[in-house]
Write a structure and sequence with these properties.
The chain is α/β, with parallel strands linked by helices and 256 residues long. It folds into two domains: 4-182 and 223-249, Rossmann fold (3-Layer(aba) Sandwich), CATH 3.40.50.720; 185-221, no CATH class. The chain is 48% helix and 15% strand. The chain has helices at 13-24, 36-46, 63-77, 100-128, 149-169, 187-200, 204-212, 224-235, and strands at residues 4-8, 28-33, 53-57, 82-85, 131-136, 174-181, 245-249. A seven-stranded parallel sheet has the order 3-2-1-4-5-6-7, with helices on both faces. Helix 1 crosses helix 8, helix 4 runs parallel beside helix 5 (149-169) and helix 6 crosses helix 7. The longest helix has 29 residues, at 100-128. The two termini are 31 Å apart. The structure holds nicotinamide-adenine-dinucleotide (NAD). Nicotinamide-adenine-dinucleotide binds at residues 8-9, 11-15, 33-35, 58-61, 86-89, 109, 136, 138, 181, 183-184, 186-189. One of its GO terms (biological process) is monocarboxylic acid metabolic process. Belongs to the short-chain dehydrogenases/reductases (SDR) family. It comes from Mesorhizobium kowhaii. One of its GO terms (molecular function) is 3-hydroxybutyrate dehydrogenase activity.
Length: 256
């Protein structure tokens, strides 16, 4: 695959697997993450010669950092074919107690981050007259769970953004879609298990069984590889007819 791909939040979990997968397919990848050291280590793991992978420090909710990070990515590899807007965090608490600063922080990382990286990517993609933007939604882009008010709100919002980008971008050869994974055992989820156990007054094992996997058809977690394969599909020509869509990758949890 002869493409340049920027992935945010790519120093861990789903984003890292997407970076590894695209790199294996021959793409040049930019690992953009709040954690610069981990981003650089991931880039070196992908390409010790530092020719085909670049680690960039970027807080996606900070306009200046997004502008300079995206500019560096485009300058380094000369073009931009795919943006995977993936960086995200989770904060779990009952809505009635939700701290306003934490609400704003979560919305800002998920929604400001998606907007800022999209805007910077579109400028380059419009010049090239081609591009694919992939948002990391969630089953929570389609359905709610208790204690996750800002997360559910933000993930629903990404579907709206993708639809607008699909409509505005079409004239410039740009597509936009959302991947909606079920639970994947990344650091984000490992941290959530004891938090949810506390909120619900049940054991960690019961959180996994009765909350996270209850509605899957086979009791299985989604894997980082499952999500990366969906991203690969949405990035390339075989998905040419897909734009403004959301694909649920969840072992059957939430059937549309
Ligand atoms: P993770 O915690 O393993 O990785 C998240 C990465 O994002 C980390 O490297 C972190 O440093 C980075 N990050 C956090 N804040 C950032 C910021 N402000 N700017 C730039 N980078 C930042 O989590 P993950 O599970 O791989 O999650 C990745 C995405 O997938 C998130 O958007 C998450 O909501 C979504 N998602 C995860 C699951 C799941 O079950 N793990 C399910 C559905 C959707």
């Amino acid at each position: 695959m002869d493409k340049v791909v920027v992935i945010t939040g790519a120093a861990s979990g789903i984003g890292k697997e997407i970076a590894l997968t695209f790199a294996r397919e021959g793409a040049k990848v930019v690992i953009a993450d709040l954690d610069l050291k981990a981003a650089q280590e991931t880039a070196l793991e992908i390409d010790p010669a530092a020719q085909r992978a670049l680690g960039v420090g970027m807080d996606v909710s900070n306009e200046e950092q997004v502008e300079s990070g995206m500019a560096r990515a485009i300058e380094t590899f000369g073009r931009l074919d795919v943006l995977v807007s993936n960086a995200g965090v989770q904060i779990v608490a009952p809505l009635v107690e939700f701290d306003f600063e934490k609400w704003r922080k979560l919305l800002s990382i998920h929604l400001d981050g998606a907007f800022l990286t999209t805007r910077a990517a579109l400028r380059q993609m419009y010049r090239q007259n081609s591009g694919s933007i992939i948002y990391m939604g969630s089953v929570h882009s389609k359905e709610a769970s208790p204690f996750k008010a800002p997360y559910v709100t933000a993930k629903h919002g990404l579907i709206g953004l993708a639809k607008v980008v699909a409509k505005e971008g079409a004239a410039h050869g740009v597509r936009a879609n959302v991947i909606c994974p079920g639970f994947v055992r990344t650091p984000l989820v490992e941290k959530q298990i004891p938090e949810q156990a506390r909120e619900l007054g049940i054991s960690a094992a019961d959180v996994v069984k009765t909350v996270m996997l209850r509605e899957t058809v086979d009791g299985e977690f989604t894997t980082v590889q499952d999500v990366a394969e969906a991203a690969l599909f949405l990035a390339a020509f075989p998905s040419n007819a897909l734009t403004g869509q959301s694909i649920v990758v969840s072992h059957g949890w939430f059937m549309q």
